[in-house]
Amino acid sequence: MPTRNASFTASIRDRAVDAFFLRMVPFVERNYNLVELGPRGTGKSHLYQQISPYAHLVSGGKATVARMFVNNATGQRGLVCQYDVVCFDEVSGISFDQKDGVNIMKGYMESGEFSRGKETIRADGSMVLLGNFDVDVEHQQRVGHLFGPLPPEMRNDTAFMDRIHGYLPGWDVPKVSKLILTDNYGLVSDFLSECWTQLREQTRVSTLQNRVYFGGALSGRDTNAVNKTVSGLLKLLYPDPNSAVPDDEMEWALRIALEARRRVKEQQKRIGAAEFRNTHFSYVLGADGVETFVSTPELQSENSIGADPLEPGQVWTISPGSQDEHPGLYRIEVNVGPGGGVHVLNKPIPPAFRESMSYAEQNLYTNAARLVGDRDPRQHEFNVQLRAFDASKTGAKLGVASLVALCSAMLKKSLRGGLILVGELNLGGSVEAIHNPVTLAEIAVAKGATALLMPVACRRQLIELSDEMATKVDIQFYLDARDALLKAIGE
What we know:
By secondary structure, the chain is an alpha/beta fold. It folds into 2 domains: 15-283, Rossmann fold; 303-489, Ribosomal Protein S5, domain 2, CATH 3.30.230.10. Helix content is 34%, strand content 19%. The chain has helices at 15-28, 44-51, 65-68, 79-82, 101-111, 137-143, 152-155, 158-161, 189-199, 220-237, 247-271, 351-366, 368-372, 399-411, 437-446, 467-470, 481-489, and strands at residues 33-38, 55-58, 62-63, 85-88, 95-96, 113-116, 119-122, 126-132, 166-169, 212-214, 282-285, 292-293, 314-319, 328-338, 341-344, 380-388, 419-421, 424-425, 431-432, 451-455, 474-478. The longest helix is centred in the middle third of the chain and has 25 residues, at 247-271.
């Protein structure tokens, strides 16, 4: 079995190990619905067929309502009542013998109950849907969505998808080989499966109460799905219900659970349902914690702006360039702690960025009350890193973005997702003019930004921006640094 310190991974947070843990959640969590679609040869069906006698594998083909749920003629209970886990292998070929088969399945996945005749029957078998991608993930998202391999009755049914608690990214799991086997002792599968079935009697949802707070994008079903995933993961790590769960392990489980559920919501959004448009899942760990957003990596590009808010202290910005350098995209990243001063970690520090950061630092000290309230920036140490994403490397004229990044880190507030902020400050706090705002707007569109925040002095020059470009990005203006901060945070 995989361990979180297995030899094939360089980190305990390796995505392959996380996927293996998520695969096991249906064994320890009642009524858990999981989908795993990915390449062949990664051992998807092996776990459900060979490891536990409490799991049953249904191969591709016609599934009968009588076999799955109950036989009305004999009263014989179906697979969901007999097994802990019912797994549909090669799900693309699965179909029911009755038209209402999928509807009965949807009802069961929602409540754990189904009605046949006059009787309502309760069961706790988990549902797992396995399938293969015939193309890579990137291509699948270009031509459709990640539920494409499901049968036609389920493929575009957003109500069916909403019952799925997690979508396991099968493309993160390596092919089965000796390289992924542990060097340590394992557990005999009979013993392991017995432990799993006993753990189904417990829940770890109580460990989240008054400790974890979810963002407003999560619906009731989203919260329930995440709670069930976290509960299952924590049971696998800490079988003893009295064990204390450290914050780092809780956060590990939260991130896996939120990502797995968000992947479901992203596919619903692709199908076009407006009710699923807000997919910016986030959490706060502890009453005084910072809101953290969780994304799905397959939707992200290192060189483009995502729609998700960044961590507090991080800002996307574009340098307008100079006679010797073209404009370029940057991300400023600031971490704050006790101490004093601003320290740029880049070696060597680009002189132009050093100047912009110096202006930002002095303006923060001078206007602290207007920018960060009663917090004293002189009692904090700021560690700054500038990341360049184009040929431009000097970081010239990034003063406003630098100041907003410092304030965001102090306030522990993220900026709006998809936002690029441009502009330069002088030592006195005035915002300098930008000579090429049309070019910056075109770069922002090319990088995938949905919003661009610019000095109000750029407004007249932007009349030259083409209609096509103007419809692709929301351009907003600010008067001064405080106005830029408030609009960037969204307050």
